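hi! just following up on the protien thing from before. the input was this:
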Amino acid sequence: MKTRRHIKYVLKLLTPGIGVKRWLLLLACGITLLSLGVSTILRQMYPLPDIFYYATLQFISRELRAGILGFAGIAAVVLALLGLNKTLLEPFGGTTTERVVNTVYQYRQRGRGPKVVVLGGGHGLSTLLRGLKQYTSNITAIVTVADDGGSSGRLRRELGVLPPGDFRNCIAALADDEALTTCLFQYRFPATAPETGPSTALRTSAGGNGLNGHSFGNLFISAMAEVTGSFERAILESGRVLAIRGRVMPSTLRDVTLMADLQAEPAGVSRVAGESSITEASEAIERVYLEPDDVSAYPEAVHALLEADLIVAGPGSLYTSVLPNLLVSDIARAINASKALKAYVCNVATQRGETEGYTAGDHVAALEAHVGKGLFPIVLVNDNLRVHLESPGVELVKADFPPNANYQILRADLVDRAQPWRHDSNKLALALLRLLQ
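and the predicted 3d structure came back as:
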């Protein structure tokens, strides 16, 4: 049974595209050339001592001799490779041949996966990334820089950096192993300090309550921006620390403010500034826009969009996560020019302060009102409405669309059973990747 399992994993390494066969062929060619060189030298030494007569089995037929020596040579090479493999893996404790083979196989499979670009922010984007990384490592997450609340907002105001919160969530979601380092990256210092313990010492050294409510990852990225001299380099290096499968980048490097026009009573419009203020307002949102509105896109984001196989907007807060990326005019133009398949993922549930009472058709109508029709010709919507939401003011988004909709509607069960107001990472990733098939 053990031998059969070893043979199974050896054959798995020989799967096309894994990159192992070429090196085995090179090894075989090297051994053959070395053998020819040795035989050439021996030929110059004729007549050879009698021991070579017996060592090379010249007392039997050539056909049998070739078979025995060939089998012995292959066996020696295989045993040498297995022994070398075991010796190299011993320092890594629990690492096994089976684990190495599976790791190499999965790494190569993901490396050959489609180029997927996703736009958004918040928990919705990280949920999608967590599912996609299982199938491809050619992922680019384009993240909004309009966040001005919580820890990100404080760092933005106090240090002048772009808000790191959504970038931190994406980096953690794309991490190769969401273990201790990722947990540390996501750790948030409590808002109320305990009477004793390390957190108290950290706050005291920071000047009272300077760390209260901050995420360690936000502080890390902000510090990295100071060390490296640029925010985009800080994101790149932070991604390397967590060995992420893909890339995370901003839609723009400019400091922008998200503005909103709200419906005011009895008639008129009120204007608010800042993402956090928009969600806290009680009036319905008419439109959102960036201030300034002529910012240029991050060049690498544009390049990724033009090279993509699949471009996905959402899931995430419609007005404060998805649209701020698309309101960067260069981003919208790049999406329109790209030959990729383009899809908008509608949220599973409505969001207080943004999309209360919205159907899936209302989501798409708001999207098209801001960026025009046809930018995302495919709309993916959840059709499992049998789950129950206990949060007041939040309801499942009904998969209702106008009869004359000018886009393709795809329906699927996308609900996370544990958190029914959110998408299931794997269900969502598979539904999107099926579009490419």
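The chain has two domains: 2-110, 114-436.
The first strand starts at residue 116 and ends at 120.
cheers
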